[in-house]
Amino acid sequence: MPRKKDIDKALKLYAEFRETVPTRGRVLDFDVPQAVMVMGNLRSLSYDTTRNKKTELYKHEFAPGSRPLLCADGRTGALYIIEGRYHVTPRGIVDIDSRGREIED
Q1: CB-hemisphere CA count at 13 Å for 101?
Q2: If 0-12 CB within 10 Å is exposed, 13-18 middle and 19+ buried, where does residue 42 land?
């Protein structure tokens, strides 16, 4: 079961990013693999999300030095985004340079 502190942080980020309060949630139960196959560096990520009651397509192009690894679980085939220099903020995915500063688009 997740810790209340982790749930509270996820709820806060959700509310800031989606610009609305979540109406439901779910706890995901999955195993983190001990070994994965590295497919390569992730150059961009596209996803649909609803912000301020409007569903839109978002695409993030990772900066060359910030690109995470796209990996697959050899047993289940599940995908994982691992490492990279970025974080998720209320503005979305933000790349970070080698000095730990946010890279402006």
Answers
A1: 4
A2: buried
- Give the closest residue to 78 by CA, choosing from 33, 45, 46: 33
Is residue 17 helix, strand or coil?
helix
pLDDT digits (tens, 9 = 90+) for 16-63: 999 988 888 888 888 889 999 999 999 999 999 998 889 999 999 999
3-class SS of residue 79 = strand
Reported as type and span, the H/E element at residue 9 is helix 4-18
CA–CA separation, 23 and 95 (whole Å):
29
